[in-house]
Amino acid sequence: MAQQTLHKLFDDYLVRAPNFTRKDALQDTYTPNQVPHREEQINQLAQILVSALRGDKPSNVFIYGKTGTGKTLVTRYVGQELEKKAAAQKTALKTCYLNCKLEKINTAYRMFAHFLAQFGEEVPSTGLPTDEVYKLFIKTMHKKKGIFILILDEIDSLSDTDVLYNLSRINTELKDSRVSIVGISNDLSFTNNIDPRIKSSLSEEELVFPPYNATQLRDILSQRAEIALQKDILAADVIPKCAALAAQEHGDARRALDLLRVACELCERKGDTTIQLHHVDDAQQKLDIDRVVQVVKTQPRQSQLVLHSIIYLSDLNNEKIGTGDVYEVYQTFCKQSRLAPLTQRRVSDLISELDMLGVINASVISRGRYGRTRKIKLAMTGRALEKSRDILKGELS
DNA sequence: CTTCCACAGGAAGGTCTGGCGG
DNA sequence: CCGCCAGACCTTCCTGTGGAAG
Questions:
Q1: A192-240: per-residue pLDDT in tens?
Q2: Residue range(s) of every CATH 1.10.8.60 domain in chain A
Q3: Distance, Å, A369 CA → C17 C1'
């Protein structure tokens, strides 16, 4: 019985004309042939890096810009083109890309290990002293002569800035090889917090990527939709709407593409023939819920307990929730589930983390005579909140 | 003006897991 | 097996502070 309905589902799906011709064109891993509205940035970056083709070491570059402004895309694009050209004229040039955040590479050890892996040198994930890995990296660079452009994406999530110092000085230890660094960050204040000497050597050149405006986002979406989607399945206002919504969120192209892709998926799932505005609305909601659910699910137990405490207090429609209030409730929950409570200091950090993950809003306020604390509010509503509650109930039972 | 609350958040160090090479 | 290493996660101890109350 269940099998029959499943078969029917499969058949129905296959009978329908697919919305997508190339779904990956709407994913952020896709590198298009053209990068609209970033011509200027491409040119600037290319001009900086082009000296590599003559065998000189290009300046180190630092790229700033908010999420979804094309930093990664442009850098990869220029890197690829450069490698192609270099291969054609037999110049030894290699670009190595590393996203520091995605792969949880936030320490010197892991960064060098990752780069070494790209050169075919396997390094154990742990166990060796860091400077041994560093020495191996130098040695490998020595052996493979040429110019290496290391792209460090989301460089601000490197917790250990000493690495950057080592990297910036690495050329003094090399003879026939040169290493250039392209640092990418969406945190404009990042360089304020690091050693000015490191800063000056790492950002010999700086590029700033402005956010896209709604018109530009529309162009980007149209270009990708052409590749990714069947003709004539988009209602007229869908792309402008996606663009407008993403423009509100600091011109985030990734967000715009996500909206369009999820809208298509939802449309397909419902068996509708054209993508309408309400699909976009649903997509926006879904993206929001998915993000929250993902965060809540993957939190460690203690952090979930803290969040649970905040939700509990929030349900009592407590307007002003402070750290102390949360800690009190948290302790009683700990007793109930027979967990050893953490210290308030630690819980305070967990609250900060939840804030950074965007599931709560916490800001430091002063209540004068009654001390300084955080004002904590839930950052989720409706379905997202319900789902979170369910997850926590399940996980903490 | 000073006092003083209720924390924020830095620094240092401890403990445990998982993995190294010898 | 040992001694050592990196890193996640916590604790302990600490200094710093915005602004209402006195």
A1: 667 777 778 888 899 999 999 999 999 999 999 988 888 788 888 999 9
A2: 212-295
A3: 12
Tell me: the pLDDT tens digits for A273-316? 889 999 999 999 999 999 999 999 999 999 999 999 999 999 98
Q: From 3.40.50.10950, 1.10.10.10, 3.40.630.30, 1.10.150.130, which CATH number describes the A299-396 domain?
A: 1.10.10.10
C1’ B22 / CA A127, Å: 14
**Spatial distance between the Cα atoms of A327 and A98, rounded to a whole number of angstroms:** 39
Say how far A338 CA is from C14 C1', in Å. 30
Distance between CA atoms of residues A343 and A348, nearest Å: 9
C-alpha to C-alpha distance for A194 and A203, rounded to whole angstroms: 12
CATH number belonging to domain A39-209: 3.40.50.300
Residue A321's nearest CA partner among A363, A352, A357 is A363
| Bases along strand B below 7 A from a protein CB | 3-11, 18-21
